[in-house]
Amino acid sequence: MEQIWISKVGGPEVLEVRESQDPVPKEGEVVIDVRASGVNFADVMARIGAYPDAPPIPCVVGYEVAGTVLESHDPSVSEGDRVVALVRFGGYSSKVVVPALQVFALPDGMTFAEGAAVPVNYFTAYLAVGLMGNLQPKETVLIHNAGGGVGIAAIQLAKEIGGRIIGTASGWKHDRLRELGADELIDYQASEWPVELSRIAEGGVHLVLDPIGGKNLKLDMKALAPLGRLVAYGFSAPVRNGKRSFARILAGLIRMPRPHFVSLLNNNRAVGGLNLGHLWGAVARLRTVAEYVLGGWSRGSVRPVIHAEVPFAEAAEAHRLLEGRKNIGKVVLVR
Ligand SMILES: NC(=O)c1ccc[n+]([C@@H]2O[C@H](COP(=O)([O-])OP(=O)(O)OC[C@H]3O[C@@H](n4cnc5c(N)ncnc54)[C@H](OP(=O)(O)O)[C@@H]3O)[C@@H](O)[C@H]2O)c1
Questions:
Q1: Alpha carbon of 335 to ligand 1 centroid (Å)
Q2: Measured from the CB, is residue 323 less than 6 Å from ligand 1?
Q3: 3-class DSSP state for residue 91?
Q4: Looking at the domain covering 2-118+304-334, what would its CATH class be?
Q5: pLDDT the model gives residue 179
Q6: CATH 3.40.50.740 is right for the domain spanning 121-276
Q7: Ligand 1 center to 208 CA (angstroms)
């Protein structure tokens, strides 16, 4: 089989296509002929050595694929099925072996590229907006980095709930994000977002989704209305132009707020943290999330926005799109 390896820590050029032995399935597992692999910001962070969850380098990353079942050792999945799967790394491969519990039927009419855009972005968005954030109709949600994969998934799920959506993103993405359902947008590269926010959301917001981390979380806490919730789910702040710096990582960690329960109590606020990559022990729970999210295809609310379908061997280009802030929506590798 073909795989894309991170050969060493470095720029996109360290991504190499290599031939590897075909994986051997065990009882309860499924072999998938991969037609599309989702690309995530976590993959970029793994490539630059700034993602603690990543396997040691050299390694093959990739958390999600879509394709056709070649072989099944589980009665719930059959050969020939068109499926989407959540994989614990190794998704940048032409073939993957996964436990059947992590395999979901691809809804009719959804392409493989759209399928590969679902698991990480929409499961994370659902857990942040729906479960942890518990967004209510008419409540206001602030979605940081609204123009990316998770950001757009969060816009779609918040829209379905009937929330008012304020997004932060680079300015050139705003027109498209309005078309996709955002009500107001702030260019957090060009302005002090808290100042803009206080102008458009007097009294604060009910839910903040933050994948930036660092001192941004302190500002988020201040932006919450009474009964407001903050869900932190990333730490992209230390990454600059696809490069890491330990100084920025350290500074970001030091500047992260340490909320005190007395203060949370007195201000009627909730703070939560979310990491899909630490939920492998809760796959059964993720199946209920998958059911809701994939059901959104027939409800018309879930419509993956594909920024680019990049040929498998050009994975470096896919990473350049994300770290260069050039994507609106999902980037997928296709075969
Ligand atoms: N906790 C979890 O389970 C989980 C799961 C999935 C993703 N995440 C996190 O959610 C965030 C979004 O992930 P994604 O895969 O959907 O990627 P993505 O948002 O599509 O990533 C690329 C976009 O991120 C924005 N961005 C923010 N900080 C950046 C930086 N330091 N360098 C470059 N671009 C930056 C840029 O848009 P703008 O120019 O508009 O800012 C860029 O276009 C990431 O921080 C990721 O680590 C967490």
A1: 24
A2: yes
A3: coil
A4: alpha beta
A5: 98
A6: no
A7: 15
